[in-house]
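Homework-ish question, so no full write-ups if that breaks the rules, but can someone show me the predicted structure for this set?
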Amino acid sequence: MSTPVSGFSKLSKAEKISWITEHYFDGNLDATALLQTYWNSDSKLQQLHDEFIENTISNYYLPLGVAPNFLINGRLYAIPMAIEESSVVAAASKAAKFWGERGGFKTEILNTKKVGQVHFTYTGDPLLLKEFFAIIAPKFRQDTKAITSNMKKRGGGILDIELRDKTAEIFNYYQLHCTFNTLDAMGANFINSCLEQFAKTLEDNFENDSRFRESELNIIMSILSNYVPECIVRATVSCSLDQLTEKGIEGREFAEKFVQAIHIAEVEPYRAVTHNKGIMNGVDAVVLATGNDFRAVEAGVHAYAARNGSYASLTGAQIEDDVFTFWIELPLALGTVGGLTKLHPLVKWSLALLQNPSAQELMQIVAVAGLAQNFAAVKSLTTTGIQQGHMKMHLMNILNQMEATPAEKKAAVHHFKETPVTHSGAVSFIENLRS
Ligand code: MEV
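A: Not a homework solution, just the prediction itself:
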């Protein structure tokens, strides 16, 4: 049993590792060696990674894959995907090829507003606060000039600052609800810096206003919101029903079952969560590969999926006049400048692979990755079922767990072409080979 450590962050990397090995691995040096195996031999590159976070002891690898042949608004993309789950990249590639042969993906940006809030309490007359807010409103912009001037020059900045009375929900609670256009930056630092200055401006002017001698204003916090229901991208695919006929399944039959599956995800939260999880397989993989904050995207997307009071599908589908249409609408606050974009070599590479997109272009690519993933999943689910494809991909994981040699892998892949893959089947196949 370990005891609490103090000053851990001050220890050198080697000291941290030896403390961990001693306290959590009974001093077994294999634990140390493993961490070292994952260090980068280029010490400059390793230092860069060390400095991304605190208490770094090693690197945690994820595979970076590429799904080619995405035709988006007439332009071909190869999409980088960082993800550990087998089948996802294969499914994306398959959907890309399928829709590439049927006109490709069409996308549009519906809005790009980002939100931040200053949360505060105020004990006085609400009308007086409203009046005061109207008078000091220009000061919020004046006092943030140093922060906003660059962004403003490029066409972005503060859009709106609104006083919201939230006292019906919490006693004495008010907000400055603020919207921003952060152009190609995700904008977290920009927004948070503006908000903290807004809070200061609010507090200072309040304190200097004699009408408020009897009342109190307390800033609770100032922070951006990862809920961005007005930063929305839409991606669509569409084709005639007869273009969907494939492998002996009539286009109309396929489309009707597909639309039914989407309707189920619109009304049934148990299905909607898994349905959207499949979408996020594609979304997160691209978000991660391009150095964006996938936790922010996840939180915002799921809140959006529940915006009508019940958790529902992020995609929609319909058949009209013998045309099948399938679409997704996603709230995405992404950046292609700032953050890790220039720092992490593979992020830089991924953005270069995408031809250095603007944030709006990246939103469109990410939405397409989500739509493609959902198409592939629902197509499999409503036709062959997913296990067939999944287990084939999973076979490699089982073989790797068993440390199969290249020859064993080749034999197993050949054998399971004709035989359904099961975990026990794969294990006994290798054991039989070995005996
Ligand atoms: C697995 O990672 C994702 C799926 O479950 C998504 C879905 O069910 O739509 C296949």
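Now go work out the reasoning yourself. Hint: The first strand starts at residue 64 and ends at 72.
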